[in-house]
Amino acid sequence: MQIKTITTYLLFCIALSIISCKEATTTALNTSNTLKHKAVLEYQIQSKLGEGSFWNYNTQELYWVDIQGKTLHIYNPKTKSNKSLVVPSMIGTVVPSTQSNKAIIALQDGIYSIDTNTGDLQLLSAVEQAITTNRFNDGKCDPSGRFWVGSIAFDETPHAAKLYMLDNNQNAILKKDSVTISNGIVWTRDKTTMYYIDTPTSEIKAYDYNDPTGAISNERVAVKVSDTLGYPDGMTIDEHDNLWVGLWNGSAVGCFNPKTGNLITKIEVPALNVTSCAFGGKNLDTLYITTATKDMGTEQLKQFPLAGSIFKAVPGVKGVKGHFYKE
Question: Which stretch is the leader sequence (predicted)?
């Protein structure tokens, strides 16, 4: 009886150990489910606050901005050349226009059209011109070619900013109030969902989106970004409607499945502050990534000497064509 009891106990312990091993293995597999890639240097430049990446599929060029450097950049990967247009104030983002050699930019005091050949500006909307404590930040166009852009207070005062939609007749319409740092914004391929980031919340919000009217409703949290990953910044979307997000203070781009909230791919970037990304190239299979030197100390700059540069990765998925502004 005693031997049987001991034998039974030993068998129980062995079974328990097997279960524990299986659980540990499952946990390890779940942890390692995130695919990892490494970005490589594409164009070396020490921008202060590189942002707003957008692939112009007509010209096969990457549009991007240096916010604090007050510069619109147009980079040609084929020739490795970078054209720079200095603007009068901080520039938050850029989107090409359907008009040839024109783009829409968000400056400190308003939304402008810029001639990409000459740099000449035309004011389209001065919607926040009177709010001198704010500047415009990130933005993109929706499927109908309306320009969505948000603001940020210079001192990042909580809830002092807003999100606007500039319609095709250049009317600026308030879409969201009480924002702190308005950042990434994208739409699904079926034009029914919009995703949006207010950075300090560490959340990617989802909205039901009505394309004919531009109306948004039913706000909910699609992704909660872990503090261990950094802060969500600029964002793009791929052919599967997964979200690719620059991670400020995270040295990476994270790809999230908005249906589950899970991180499914991580691209490691040799820069501390990763700000935005855009799928480009002839087949939209190359992810171009902007970075910044802002808020970095001397030791951090030594650790990340390529900070502020443009990087790229080929993650094995394709993006979708970005929407141009329709005037």
Answer: 1-24
Same domain, 82 and 5: no
Residue 151 and residue 107: Cα distance in Å, rounded? 10
Q: State which residues form the domain around 43.
A: 35-313
Q: Which residue has the tokens 């990130």?
A: 138
Q: List C-alpha distances in Å: 143 to 96, 153, 185, 209, 259.
A: 14, 28, 12, 10, 21
> Do 25 and 89 have their domain in common?
no
**Same-domain pairing of 76 and 21:** no
Question: Is the domain of 117 the same as that of 20?
Answer: no
Q: With beta carbons less than 8 A apart as the criterion, state whether 168 and 146 touch.
A: yes
Q: Are residues 86 and 25 in the same domain?
A: no
Is residue 322 in some structural domain? no
Tokens of 74: 């147009």
Nearest CA among 310, 289, 190 for reference residue 239: 190
**Measured torsion, CA atoms of residues 60, 64, 228, 320, in degrees rounded to the nearest 10:** -30
Read off the pLDDT band of 33 (50, 70, 90).
confident
User: Does residue 325 sit within a domain?
Assistant: no
Neighbours of 60 (CB within 10 A): 13
Q: Measured between alpha carbons, how far is 77 from 245 in angstroms, rounded to an integer?
A: 22
Could you please report the per-residue DSSP string of 102-162? Answer: EEEEEETTEEEEEETTT--EEEEE-TTTT-TTEEEEEEEE-TTSPEEEEEEETT--TT-EE
Calculate the CA 47 to chain-centre distance: 17
Q: Please, what is the average pLDDT of the chain?
A: 92
User: Does residue 8 sit in the same domain as residue 22?
Assistant: yes
φ, ψ of residue 28 to 5 degrees: the values are -65, -40
Within this chain, do residues 120 and 208 fall inside the same structural domain, yes or no?
A: yes
pLDDT in tens, 129-162: 999 999 999 999 999 999 999 999 999 999 999 9
The answer as to whether 83 is a domain residue is: yes
CATH of the domain at 111: 2.120.10.30
Instruction: Count Cβ atoms below 10 Å from residue 125 Cβ, excluding itself.
Output: 18
